[in-house]
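batch job 7 of whatever, protein = pectate lyase
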Amino acid sequence: MPSATPSRRRRRLVMGLGAAGAAGAVTALVAVLVPSASAGTLFSDDFESGAGNWSKSGGTWSVVSDGSKVYKQAKADSELARVFAGETSWTNYSVEAKVKGLDLSRGLAGVAARASGSSTMYRLALTSAGRAELQAVKGSTITSLGSAVVSDPAAWHTLKVDVSGSTVTGYLDGAKVASGAGSLAGAGRIGLVTSYASAEFDDVSVAALGAGATSSATASPTATKTATATPTATKTATATPTATATSTSAAWPSATGEKAVTATIAVSGTLDGGNVRYFGSGDLGSDSQDESQDPIFKLADGAVLKNVILGAPAADGIHCSGSCTLINVWWENVGEDAATFKGGTSATYTVDGGGAKGADDKVFQHNGGGTLTIKNFQVEDFGKLYRSCGNCSTQHKRAVVVQNVVATAPAGSLVGINTNYGDTATISKVTVVGKKSLDICVKFTGNSSGKEPTKIGTGADGVNCLYNESDITFK
């Protein structure tokens, strides 16, 4: 922006309350010390040193000059372009940014708070109607909480969103736009967003609001992390958190660093990510539901992946070529699928601990044969937890075992199997939060012709869907 102040000429990032210091060395990451901020400051960025603190999901983003350095989203035909920063555990805070619409003829541009997924957030946006509108966004459902007229959307405006408890308040250039009660997740990252628009962003800052402002306040890292080239090795250093699987009550971990991935990482043996956040970039930067996307990680037969956070965009997540084990793997926003299992008829796959959010459709896709066990897992805002492929060109008899899983805000069903191929689903200790009923086990007639499979029934039957009503708790 033309009126850059001295504070605009330096970039500050703080991931905790009143913290200053240096993060320990992390394999394939370089820690860069940053100055401390005031006690209530969680984050600030003016893009003078680039945009390394942000993970992209859709659109064409770059740092350009407009009086000073700003972050520009140039692809006006992108349905939903966004970048995210901060921690998924942040709760009560105020996020503020300067926004200038370059092309708002068809869409909007704004700032987001409590982004629990790439399409679930509160946002205050400048719109094509010449208004600033406060919205609650969950997938394709957009709820307006109020709006105000904007005299010149093509000028720089300061947008601010306060989230405190269940109350969401938006401000335009210091004046209150609207306030209302929100029903989305009570925690999440910040974001800059456009939809069918191009815009510039600058001077982003986040401040804590009241007690319990962020559950990550005591996190020790206070350095930005700059990634090196995509790793080709299949094993990492052992100075990482333990791999013991978490229970479903475990809190989501705070990322110890970030790694942009431009090409699929091949894993054989064991890779311990130390809770680094990996996210797609370049050719892996899509946020679509395209079935042909490449994964972030591709696991060889017998490989183990543990203590990893997948951020947005997550592309096609993880592919297992044969038997594999995923321990404490966390998907902050599921891309096409969280993981796809492609092994042979005797393959065994285990997902132990971890969690996933924001799956428009499936979380786990079973295309190969063998048995998948999902245990001690938490899943939120999703379509299906598990699907045995209904129309793969090569079909198999498949089995899934679901144990000790908490499923929050499901949109569809828990598991789907093909009874004509002899699939089985064995389910126990499942807690469903936010719904009074749910199709726990859906039965289909699958095919190998590529046609949509036919749904033939739901519920326990003692043959294919193996569980008792007492195994399912609704809250």
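notes: The two ends are 49 Å apart (CA to CA).
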